[in-house]
Amino acid sequence: MKILHRFTRFLKNLSIPQGRKTAPDAISKPKDTQAPHHDVAAPLVVRQNEEHDCAAYTDLKKQFRDIGRIGAVAETLGRDFLTAMPEGAWKSRLSQIAYMHRLMHEKMTDRTIAGQIDRAKSHLENNNDNWDEWDRANLQEIERSHRRAACIDGELTETEARLAYEGRRHHRNMLAAGDWMQAREFLSRTIDMKCRVADATCRATGKNSAYDVLLDEFMPGVSQGDLEGWFKTIKTGFDKILPQALEKQSKESEPLPITDYYPAKAQMWLNRALLKAIDFDFERGGLYETGHNPVEGGTPDDTRLVISTADTSNFMDSLKSTLHEGGHGLYIQGLPRKTWRYQPVAQDMGAAMQESQALLIDMIVGRSPAFFEFLSPRMEGLFHGLKNPVLSARNLYKLRTQVKPTMVRRKADEITYFYHILHRFRLERDLIGRRLKVADLPEAWNAGMEDLLGVQPQSYAEGCLQDVHWFVGKFGYFPSYATGHMLAAQQFAALSKDIPNIDAQIASGDFLPLTNWLRENIHQQGRVKDMDTLMKNATGSNITPKHLLSHIENRYVRAA
Length: 560
Fold this sequence. Notes:
Order of helices and strands: HHHHHHHHHHEEHHHHHHHHHHHH
Number of helices: 22
Helix content: 55-70%
Distance between the termini: 41 Å
Strand content: under 5%
Low-confidence stretches: 1-13, 15-41
Strand order of the largest sheet: 1-2
């Protein structure tokens, strides 16, 4: 009861700064770029159900509305698979999920769709004034989705979906046992399947890079060449910053370690309160724990964030995971669901933009002095640690920004995290390019870690088995973390100009201006623009690594 009483007081002091009205009308709301707020005399127009002058396009919207609904059902089944499903149901659930993906594929590749797309494009060409920016973008995304699906058959689509969820289960078991032999066999199957997908797409589209094809699934419009250019610039900068940061921290006192007991229930209360503070809508979502790795995703109406089970010896891991998944959740909930809900134009911009939202909340805001100035006194109360130096703002900040090369990506600091991603990017590029055999992966993994960070894994669990991504077929996803970090720094630099007192607002617990900026400039835009244009409109410049380099140098080298 004491913990509950302390937490009730904590909630009262968390989300809304003193003196701020809590009525919905008192909170400033971002502009809705695709559908402004309407009164009773001007009801909201649901654009996906709106009749268009082009009958073919109207039919396409109806078909993709149904495809979107099936996708939402598949997503819900998948969430249940990872959180609440009884163990004995996993085989039947795999077949259900796989069938849903096959059904979506069949509808997306229906023989009538290609003709409808051609007629809609012809109508657009001859009646441009009848098509606004959102309709044009939606037709473009419909065509892109159709052409990508048409490259592979339904059986391969079903196999891909089945292996993705089966891989989560197998990875959990193989990681716990450190069983590389079984992992090698499953990973070989997964790579063979992804290569079949990529090769079929290359044949159908005339592309010659299997890895570029897989990248396009997660980062539309971004090529291997783009990544190599950005990563070269970042590595050159980080190679200079890393030793400077290590030297600076070596002259400072070590942060006090976290050694107390932190009840799991109290941690989850804290996590949910922080999500409410950044305006995550619990009427359309929730936070859940799982024995699997954390999971990104969800739908705007059912955004179930999934994090690893809380560690009672260290609340920082659960806190970090919640902030990260919370960034994903804000993005998903902020998509233009009221007007375009199931249409392709209402989808997010892909993994790089998704990770930018997660890393902006987790790494840039959630590791700032202002954030811990806000959090520290509330944690002292919640964990019954008044005046506990471990829970001081300064100590929590030092713990969260301590730079130290480590074997495990998810425990890496903000600087060395990039090297983990660069390492995985190089390996998966070579695995898909058939320049690296799966059997040789452990040796290549260990050599790369030694070369980049000077550390050597002592087990498969610390090495090539630590991540779930490849076991679920996500080849091309890892680079989105580094790209997302770059985008996040650029976005935060821009919003800091638009909101000059952002640090003071964060320190006081007022996160709404930050969340609203992201909603207006990123979330509500869906896919109405490509990523380059979206970033230029939001930040005033093309995509560039310079803001990330500046952010890292300021935080880890120049800051007092």
